[in-house]
Amino acid sequence: MLLSRGLAALTLIVxxxxxxHAEYLYKDDVVKxxxxxxxxxxxxxxxKAKTGVSLYLVMVRDLEENQSIADFEKQLxxxxxxxxxxxxxxxxxxxxxxxxxxxxxxxxxxxxxxxxPNATFIGxxxxxxxxxxxxxxxxxxxxxxxxxxxxILAERAKGNxxxxxxxxxxxxxxxxxxxxxxxxxxxxxxxxAGSGSKNFIDIxxxxxxxxxxxxxxxxxxxxxxxxxEEPLDV
Length: 234
What we know:
Layout: H1 2-21, E1 25-28, H2 34-51, E2 54-60, H3 69-79, E3 84-90, E4 95-101, H4 111-114, H5 121-131, H6 135-143, H7 150-153, H8 160-184, H9 195-229
Parallel strand pairs: 1-2, 2-3
Antiparallel strand pairs: 3-4
Helix pairs in contact: 2-8, 5-6
């Protein structure tokens, strides 16, 4: 009898502890890594304690048929107490979005910057030249550089490295939003990634675009010299 009561109490304690640890990593059907969950929840708990804002991370495989990511986030918002920011990643659709409730929370962080496909100035220039259809669109692409999620998701990966890529991308984005919210409240987060990871990503981006530029130069030079060496028809 005492053993049964003890097991029941232990089960209750474990369940309560797990629910606490899962508070800010609200849903995770993708990474499923205890260390990742611990890092996210540590940042979320510190942010909540210092600012009163709850930052939730949601990662699911896919949505229901004909359901948009915006509708999914609105559904989640009903379950969560405001003020709350919800960062959502849909794996099979490779989509990321951030919803803030109340909407005044958007003033606490730069959503366009966090979700920018470009991490560096060089990348934003390349995107502006290749994809912008107007001057205003080009200016927006350049000004909203500094993305901390999409540039990593765009990297190629195989096997287990795919899950690692998701972990890095979402952790960086989550940390970025948390730090911006904390900065708005004039506080610092000891559990967050800090600027070190962002600088590291910037370095990787510079190297990446440098390699592309070098390959283009080599290709152009190769074609130019081949044309010079071709004999003229007599």
